[in-house]
Amino acid sequence: xxxxxTPVTLASxxxxxxxxxxxxxxxxxxxxxxxxxxxxxxxxxxxxxGARASGGFGLVxxxxxxxxxxxxxxxxxxxxxxxxxxxxxxxxxDFIHSQGSAAGIQLAHAGAKASTHPWLPxxxxxxxxxxxxxxxxxxxTAGPSKTTxxxxxxxxxxxxxxxxxxxxxxxxxxxRADAAxxxxxxxxxxxxxxxxxxxxxxxxxxxxxYGGSFDNRTRYARxxxxxxxSAWPAHKPLAIRFSGDDWVEKGWKLADTVRxxxxxxxxxxxxxxxxxxxxxxxxGPSGPGFQVPLAAAVKRALPDAxxxxxxxxxxPSQAEQxxxxxxxxxxxxxxxxxxxxxxxxxxxxxxxxxxxxxxxxPQYWRAHW
Length: 369
Fold this sequence. Notes:
By secondary structure, the chain is an alpha/beta fold. Helices cover 31% and strands 15% of the residues.
């Protein structure tokens, strides 16, 4: 039996937890495909996510889904801050379930990295119109500190009242995600977006209770986790994605991630996905599986958590090895899944998984051989 295709259960505070049919996870990947600039997912998202569910993934995550309009990376992002968005997600979740996959939503706020052109690291100023077909008008951004580190229009530093209001945005989004039927909520704390901006000393220059020391820089993240865990049903797992290391001198380091992951676990997070970077010029490693050591470090610290590795994991044998060696409990597949929506089904066949365990959709039964 392949380890990759052994079912696994994600723990929750109450109930039996969530069983996944296998340990392949579709990584959250922005599609920049919201035609009406209103955050409502449409047919593309059903086709994109539905294809990966029918292709055999155990857990399918949405793209970064904004908890507020101000928190979108671009205005071609999906959101879940209003009723129309909640209603539009529900049939997509239903279809994912119908294919045997669990449905996860990545809740996100871009902070200082909001109001940009899709695919380009360039700001759209408030009230201006982007020069790309999918880019609409820009808006004012906010983050923990006024910073030029991203090469974008500097955000306004958030006031205490704005911080409190943003935490409520996360709560409201989690409640809508539950109403839409999602099984897992993942808090996006990676890639230089709002929570990561609070965590990293590279851009958090606050001098109040949200800046300076480790405890202060992690305060916002802890408050978001606590609030979302209270709003998210106790029988459903809560997940988080970290940038395990900034790979920049004086930035957020792996030791910080391990320390904070332990705190997050105590606050009710049971699933951890380990990516990296997003702030400053990249000086880290590269190559197949380059981020696996980050996942392995968190797994050693949290043996009872569900930890996934992500980043240039393309080959089924490579993915299997990550699990067999105990570096992680699952793998998040990104670009390889864009190239082949049936990546899990093909991987199962290549790894010699028993015929009845290969997660091909019934309509594709001829592909089993």
